[in-house]
Amino acid sequence: MAHQYPGPPPEQPPGQPGQPGQNPYAAPDGGRPAEAGYGYPQGGRPGEPGYGYPQAAPPPPVFAPGTPPPPPAGLPVQPPQATGLALALGDIAVHGDTIVTPAGPMPLKGAVWTATDMSRTEERMPTHAVVLAVIFFFFCLLGLLFLLMKERITTGFVQVTVNSGGRHHATMVPVQSREQVMFVLNQVNYARSLSV
After folding, report:
1. Residue 175: other Cβ atoms inside 10 A
2. Cα(123)–Cα(152) distance, integer angstroms
3. Would the pLDDT of 41 be above 70?
4. What would the mean pLDDT of 112-127 be, rounded to a whole number?
5. What percentage of the chain's residues is helix, strand, coil (to nearest 5)?
6. What top-level branch of life does the organism fall under (predicted)?
7. What would the mean pLDDT of 89-118 be, rounded to a whole number?
8. Residue numbers of the domain that contains 99
9. Residue 95 belongs to some domain of the structure
């Protein structure tokens, strides 16, 4: 395998790296690193980094303390908005005078909020009530009163939709109790009051 070619390539004189008996990975003569070869990005001029190499980042602009940086060129200047999260329902959030959704930002003023209760509540006798009724039936007949125990289980979602600025977004908020349903409905009522 070592003598695959009959002789050295024409551009490589005998005795240079690549000949049998010499380390092909050794540094070239003179201590300089080898030139970039095949597979390395090539620069336009010597000493210039090639495509794909990290470039030096431009220095960050310096602003006077307390002054906001100027907006990038070509973008419209917007007045500063009130900050802080006023309300969050699922993936709908209200920041200042803007409703932020995955469908995009919407104006808060004039928004139409809708909430639909899609949950269901089941009432059933818990397992521990049946066990206690059987155990205490043999001791006294008062054990039958355990059969009057009921538990309510709420499962489902409350669908919250918002329409504003020609956009529409709906989200489903999961609920596990009637209190959570009332909380979400009260949050929607608060959002309606902010939209007026």
Report:
1. 20
2. 4
3. no
4. 92
5. 20, 30, 55
6. Bacteria
7. 91
8. 85-122+152-195
9. yes
Measured between alpha carbons, how far is 55 from 30 in angstroms, rounded to an integer?
Answer: 28
CA distance 172 to 117: 10
Task: Concatenate the DSSP letters of all residues of 25-69 into one string.
Answer: TSPPTTSPPPPP-TTS---SSTTS--TTSPPPPPPPPP--TT-PP
- 143-184 pLDDT per residue, tens: 888 888 898 889 999 999 999 988 999 999 999 999 999 999
What pLDDT does residue 8 have? 57
The answer to whether position 165 is within a domain reads yes
**135 domain-assigned:** no
What total of structural domains would you count in the chain? 1
Work out the percent of the chain whose per-residue pLDDT is above 70. Answer: 57
Q: How far is CA 85 from CA 58, 89, 94, 121, 182, in A?
A: 35, 11, 6, 32, 21
Confirm if 75 and 118 have CB atoms less than 8 A apart: no
The residues pairing with 151 across neighbouring beta strands, listed in sequence order, are 124
Phi, psi of 165 (to 5 degrees): 60, 30
Give residues with Cβ within 8 angstroms of 9, minimum separation 6. Answer: 18
Q: What is the reported pTM?
A: 0.52
Question: Quick check: 129 and 123 in contact, CB under 8 A?
Answer: no
DSSP 139: H
Region class of 136: left (phi > 0), else alpha (psi between -120 and 50), else beta: alpha
